[in-house]
Structure prediction request, 110 residues.
Amino acid sequence: RYFRSRCRLIDLLLLINRVLARSAVDEEEKTTDNGENLEERYEQKELVRQVRKFVASLSDTERRVFVCRYWYLDSTAEIAKRFGFSENKVSSMLHRTRGKLEKYLRREGI
Prediction:
């Protein structure tokens, strides 16, 4: 499966970041300028929908830390300083949240 390594999960999260950014720009378009096929675009939109649903289900603190790391690409040190947490706590929170995301996406068949 896709989640065999931490690197692949992080690649997925970075892909989600790019897809979310792009979907905000061209939400109404059926294809992008680079000729991306409709099936791939549909799969990306479904992934975005599921990730948004997952993120909405998180507690406020989990959601904010997760978004800081994977949307804004803040370092764990920056997040720790912003929230008044230790870097270990931030790393632990992110690890647990990635695990929850993995379980959620598997359950949803993604």
Residues 12 and 19 are 10 Å apart (CA to CA). The helical segments are 6-25, 38-57, 60-70, 76-83, 87-107.
